[in-house]
Design a protein that fits this description.
By secondary structure, the chain is α/β, with parallel strands linked by helices. The chain has one domain: 2-enoyl-CoA Hydratase, Chain A, domain 1. Helix 2 packs parallel to helix 3. The longest helix is centred in the middle third of the chain and has 20 residues. The radius of gyration is 18 Å and the shape is globular. The N and C termini lie far apart (69 Å).
Length: 272
């Protein structure tokens, strides 16, 4: 039995020259990340890296979306505060989601279709090359849920575009299109929406037919820039944990789950 059989929410397809397409396969939820998929996204890149028949991976989403972030209703609604073991596991899974993609010895190309929010942005931008549709909707998503932007954004956004722009989008929670994200340098390539997967596959084929150890070691060297920012990433994840179990996030998740606009308890009332 191949290692791919152990995954429930990821589908695998082999292409020429060792290209493997990895598809998030929960289209009924716009590929929202539940606990099982979160673990799988932290594990799969180790398996991809160790498979001698894989040269390059292409990551995409089934259906009309890449990934809509964490699935509402699977977290943030608990009445009791978590214990230390739960917090430790959450921190491990959040960091693994990013670190395993960065440290994977094989290049990863993300084909971002539809929308990518929160953890969807984390996996989209942790790839070595990100191809996005021109009308795709991109948003870190954490601020609207009352949480610190800890999944990946503090680590990657200031590296990919200016710190000034990262501050603007992360502090306002404003959504970017694929076209705007390419202009700012947040994604590698922007193409018409119906060409995203084809462009990602063509890019993967080009990489897969190059000298493989030169490719892998170039990836390793380039990601040295990312690894240097690890202390900032660790801090942002720890701060995210604080807000994850705070009153703003709990109130926001309950409101969103009920179909209401979040009202944050920490927002000061208007006074004339």
């Amino acid at each position: 039995m191949s290692w791919q059989a152990g995954y429930e929410h990821l589908v695998f397809e082999r292409r020429e020259h060792g290209v493997m397409v990895v598809t998030l396969n929960r289209p009924e939820t716009r590929n929202a990340v539940n606990a099982r998929l979160h673990r799988e996204l932290g594990q799969v890149w180790r398996d991809v890296g160790e498979d001698p028949s894989v040269s390059v991976a292409v990551l995409t989403g089934a259906g009309e979306a890449f990934c809509s972030g964490g699935e509402i209703g699977t977290f943030g609604l608990e009445e009791e505060l978590p214990d230390s073991a739960d917090i430790d596991e959450s921190m491990h899974e959040i960091t693994s989601l990013v670190y395993e993609m960065i440290n994977c010895r094989k290049p990863i190309v993300a084909a971002v279709n539809g929308l990518a929010i929160a953890s969807g942005m984390a996996i989209a931008l942790s790839a070595d090359i990100t191809v996005a549709g021109e009308n795709v909707k991109l948003n870190d998503g954490h601020l609207r849920g009352g949480m610190v932007a800890g999944d990946h954004a503090v680590l990657l956004w200031p590296l990919f575009m200016s710190l000034a722009k990262a501050r603007y989008y992360l502090l306002t929670g404003e959504t970017l299109t694929g076209r705007e994200a390419e202009r700012l340098g947040l994604v590698s390539v922007c193409v018409p929406d119906d060409q995203v997967l084809d462009r990602a596959l063509a890019t993967a084929q080009r990489i897969a037919t190059s000298a493989q150890y030169a490719v892998r070691w170039t990836k390793r060297a380039l990601n040295g820039w990312v690894r240097q920012q690890a202390p900032l990433f660790e801090q942002s994840v720890a701060l995210e944990m604080l807000t994850t179990y705070g009153s703003d996030m709990r109130g926001a998740m309950k409101a969103i789950h009920a179909g209401r606009k979040p009202q944050f308890p920490t927002v000061l009332p208007y006074r004339d």
